[in-house]
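hey so i finally got around to running the thing on that chain from the lab meeting. sorry it took forever, my laptop kept dying and i had to restart like 3 times. anyway pasting the input first so we r on the same page abt which one it is
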Amino acid sequence: MRKLETVSLDDARRVIAAGEDKARKIGSPSNLAVVDVGGNLVAHIRMDDAWLGSVDISINKAFTARAFDTATADLATNAQPGGQFFGISDSNHGRVMIFAGGVPLRSSDGIVVGAVGVSGGTGEQDQTIADTAAAAF
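ok and heres what got predicted. didnt touch it at all, straight out
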């Protein structure tokens, strides 16, 4: 039986710290969340002045990236009217986020072991922060 790899608390802290640093550099107070291989929250921060409404969004972006093992921005492309995943945002009790800012975290052998979600800025800002955070993993 193969041992299931997952994001540790230390991993989550490192990912969040990198994302928080990038958010400060680009002037986008954000919420950053990291989930484990099961989509469960490992860590979350809400930076000073980040939108309160983005707490759940950041957590749900991370959940979505893990649940579908894809970046939420990529999922959004296929969730438009006429797309193969149109309506997916209504699934999973409304937890599925179909806009930029959620990125899977992959082990060195490419297996998804968690995800990061960012919310608080524009889609481009959220994606930039999430990509930077994921790179720290």
